[in-house]
Amino acid sequence: MPLAELMSQIQELSKIDKLRLMRFLAIELVKEKDATTLLVANQEYPVWSPYNCSDAANVLMDLLATKRQEQNN
User: Fold this and answer.
1) Phi-psi region of 24 (alpha: psi -120 to 50; beta: other; left: phi over 0)
2) Are the C-beta atoms of residues 56 and 50 closer than 8 Å to each other?
3) Computed from CA positions of residues 36, 41, 44, 46, in that sequence, does the dihedral angle turn out positive or negative?
4) Rounded to two decimals, what is the model's pTM?
5) What is the DSSP code string of the chain?
6) Which residues neighbour 35 within 8 Å (Cβ) at sequence distance 6 or greater?
7) Are 21 and 12 in contact (CB under 8 A)?
8) Average pLDDT of every residue of the chain
9) Rounded alpha-carbon distances, angstroms, from residue 37 to 28, 32, 41, 51, 72
10) For residue range 26-61, what is the model confidence (pLDDT) as tens digits?
């Protein structure tokens, strides 16, 4: 199947099916010999999150306040 046809079919998938496809592809990449140095199957990897990051929240609040002032003027 040509890649263009496959991509067209992927676009028609629901959001949850696209996420399942992403998970499947990620697992397939891990299984490849070259990927074993990058990712290990069944291993957890930390992901940065804005939770408990008050500095980021303050920056966003300042940006929102600035935007509201610009819209009111």
Assistant:
1) alpha
2) yes
3) positive
4) 0.44
5) --HHHHHHHHHTS-HHHHHHHHHHHHHHHHHSTGGGGT--TT--------TT-HHHHHHHHHHHHHHHHHHH-
6) 29
7) no
8) 85
9) 14, 10, 11, 30, 54
10) 888 777 766 556 667 788 888 877 777 788 888 999
**Dihedral Cα 7, 12, 16, 22, nearest 10 deg:** 0
Report the alpha-carbon distance of residue 41 to residue 29 in Å, rounded.
10
25, 10, 31: which is closest to 2 by C-alpha? 10
**pLDDT recorded at residue 5:** 92
Q: Which amino acid is at 71?
A: Q
Whether 57 and 50 have beta carbons less than 8 Å apart is answered as yes
